[in-house]
Amino acid sequence: MPRKRTDILIIGSGIAGLSLALKTSQYADVILVTKKDSADTATNWAQGGIAAVTGKDDDFRIHMEDTLRTGAGLCRPEAVRLVVETAPARIRELMDLGVRFTRREGELALAREGGHSRSRILHHHDRTGQEIESVLLQKARASGRLELLEHHVMIDLLMAPRSRRAFESGHTPRCFGAYVLDEPRDVVEAIEAKAVILCTGGSGMVYFHTTNPAIATADGVVAAWRGGAVVGNLEFFQFHPTTLYEPDTGSRPRALITEAMRGFGAVLRTRSGEPFMHLYDDRRELAPRDIVARAIDAELKKRGDPFVVLDCTHLSADALREEFPQIDEICRARGIDFTKEPIPVVPAAHYQCGGVLTDLEARTSLPGLFAVGEVAMTGLHGANRLASNSLLEAVVFADQAANSCREWLREAPPLPEAEEWSAEGTVNAEEWVLVEHNRDEIRMIMWDYVGIVRSTLRLERARRRLQLLRHEVEDFFRRTRVNGPLVELRNLVVIADLIVESALSRRESRGLHFMTDFPNPDLTGDPQETLLSRYRSSVRADWRHSLR
Ligand code: SIN
User: Best of 256, 380, 395 to mutate for ligand 1, by most ligand atoms within 8 A of CB?
Assistant: First the structure.
């Protein structure tokens, strides 16, 4: 088995991974692995922008209040404060690196999105993610102490000790790298590192309809969970209210229609033209995403329509094209002129608000393992993420992680040696088609039974089906020579199961988690504490099973 050794291993090349690579390669040797091309990331698809207090009518207190209110009682206030108060410094760094935010008459142009009580979204037209990703990538490629490996798929984390006895006698295992599949050479190698930072993004591909790129298969959160890390809040999956409705999208990602359009004045209407958001919330189109997505879901169910529409035909055509060039392009490619006709839209899975639990320094519960970005549960989002807080969270916690990782390297014990990867198994072409079937089945179960509105009946139905699939997939994984799609399938079935288990045990409605049989929030006890202890025990139980 080939081996590599380094100080820091970063997994993922979105805004979190690249920001970290730039900062940590100033003081350490860094390897960054990414499973596709470097720019195949959710960051690159982010249209809206990055929230920060820069306007004259705004202040930290208001941004914090908006974040806490949207998070429905589950945000960690220290995390919210940290992110909001350090945002301006991180934005300045991005601008110093060369990121261009849209300006009007020399001033930063600030957009408004749902749940924000001020205009505070910095953006680069409707291509903010692309702008940030390309600047960071260009800088990272120039860094002397960084090795960037594309088409390398993380299979599992390297953990020590690995033995069941050590784990059961209370040793917290330490993470010291990862088994990685080098796809072009078709070999598994061990990358041993003093510190590992997960920046793998989210898990949108677990749902049949998603805005996420194909890479979003929960690789980081599931690998951390298998390694014994505490994960949490997985029941809080954010559905973006407005993605382009196309009858023949199949399981391909749905095109995002940025929330900034509603901030610009676009109105949601039923298919027959009636506005409806005033029936659901005083903030109408600018209510937080959970409320807007549920309102659309209710209208679709009530009327039996396949979509609602987003209408901007009353707004200036020139201003729309100037502000939203990407949406213009997306619509035109489908024969829609959004200045003259409304856009058909439906909700789709968009963002994982839970993830691997971290502290304010981005440390997970496992020594040597850090997590930053969508993969992490820092406490910023709670039960629902405020729009455009995610790119911000990634840059703030990348900075925290870069500092705490430096400390960790000073004290890190010597690196153990990874055990040989067993390359047994065969690729059986006849059975291979089952991987595709299993993947579609998981995604459809999640879409049908674990969506915007849930019930115990639906969740239990999902649980029964997923448990069967989980055994099938694990068995297939053990018998088959490892490859990228199989690694992803193994992660998808586990994250699906974890989301369902989390949803079943939250017997209340809160933020993004809405249960018809428990329609109100449970105001007794501390929901965050209950949640974390529950995860601690479930993690231990399953970790034992996963030991080979
Ligand atoms: C959007 O542009 O609507 C998405 C931005 C986000 O998810 O924060």
Answer: 256
**What angle in degrees, to the nearest 10, is found between the helix axes of 390-411 and 15-24?**
40
Q: What does the pLDDT average to over 191-203?
A: 98
Most ligand 1 atoms within 8 A of CB, residue of 240, 380, 386, 393 to mutate: 240
Atom of ligand 1 nearest to the CA of 385: 8
**Angle, helices 77-97/60-70, rounded to nearest 10 degrees:** 120
Average pLDDT, the chain: 92
Closest protein CA for atom 8 of ligand 1: 388
Q: What's the CA-to-centroid distance between 113 and ligand 1, angstroms?
A: 8
CATH number at residue 437: 1.20.58.100
Alpha carbon of 110 to ligand 1 centroid (Å): 14
User: What is the pTM assigned to this prediction?
Assistant: 0.94
Residue to mutate (ligand 1; options 66, 102, 113, 324; most atoms within 8 A of CB): 113
Last residue of a domain, one of 332, 349, 366: 349
Mean pLDDT of 124-146: 94
- Quick one: which atom of ligand 1 is closest to the CA of 390? 8
Provide the 8-state DSSP code for 142: T
Is 530 within the bounds of a domain?
no
Distances (CA, A) of 531 to 129, 218, 232, 456: 32, 20, 7, 18
What totals of helices (H) and strands (E) does the chain contain, helices first?
A: 16, 20
Q: Which residues line ligand 1 (CB under 6 A)?
A: 46-48, 256, 258-260, 351, 387-388, 390
User: Which residue CA neighbors atom 5 of ligand 1 most closely?
Assistant: 48
Q: Is residue 448 part of a domain?
A: yes
Model confidence pLDDT, tens digit, residues 79-112? 999 999 999 999 999 999 999 999 999 999 999 9
CA dist 523 and 529 (Å) reads: 13
Residue whose entry in the numeric block shows the structure tokens 């091309």: 37
Query: Which value, to the nearest 10 degrees, does the dihedral of the CA atoms of residues 218, 171, 358, 399 take?
Result: -100
**548 within some domain:** no
Q: Is residue 514 part of a domain?
A: yes
So what's the pLDDT on residue 544? 34
CATH number at residue 250: 3.90.700.10
Q: What is the DSSP letter of 424?
A: -
Do the beta carbons of residue 356 and residue 371 sit within 8 Å? yes
* CA 107 / ligand 1 centre spacing (Å): 22
The pair phi, psi for residue 465, each rounded to 5°, is -70, -40
Domain span holding position 453: 429-523
Which residue's alpha carbon is at the smallest distance from atom 2 of ligand 1? 48
433 and 345 belong to one structural domain = no
| Torsion sign, CA atoms 77, 79, 80, 84 | positive
432 pLDDT band, cuts 50/70/90, is confident
The C-alpha atoms of residue 382 and residue 365 are separated, in whole angstroms, by 19
Q: How many other CB atoms are found less than 10 A from the CB of residue 318?
A: 9
Q: Kindly give the distance from the C-alpha atom of residue 439 to the centroid of ligand 1, in angstroms, as a whole number.
A: 26
The catalytic residues are: 289
- For residue 122, report the distance from its CA to the centre of ligand 1, in Å: 12
